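We read letters as residues; the fold follows as tokens. A sample entry reads:
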Amino acid sequence: MFETHLDATYAWLGLALVSVATVGVAAALPASPQPDASGVAHTIDSIADGEHPATAEHGIAADRIRLTERSVTLDGGGGTVRAALRAPRITPVLEGREKDPDGDGLRRVLTGVPPDAEFDDPKAFAAAAERVRARDHEWRPAPDRLTVRRVHYGGVHVTLVG
């Protein structure tokens, strides 16, 4: 009447091992999903590849962003994700640099101000874009929305991202 059934002991041991394994897997999962770097790259590429001036926005769920001419990297609770850009060179104009006349003028153009209102001529516009592209692109706080704008000024075609 008080004997131990061997099958019950193995069943309890198996259940305990499965429980420990389940807790281990659940603890290893990230708290939030990975940021969508490929979606951001697709939005940038779709505007930058176009022939005509255009504007698009893409929501971002990340803590930090790093934009270069050829890639976008997002960092958030779900990890760090990088996506390559297929499009011609972009001009990153993210917030974060103090006293940056090139970046300030380009940021205003990104928000909709005509380039001829910010720059004297197309050469000055192209030179400002080139100086911004040549900088070291470090991590910046990620905005809630990323704006992409393809601008034509004279014979100069620039894709601003910020």
Q: What stands out?
A: The chain has one domain: 37-161.
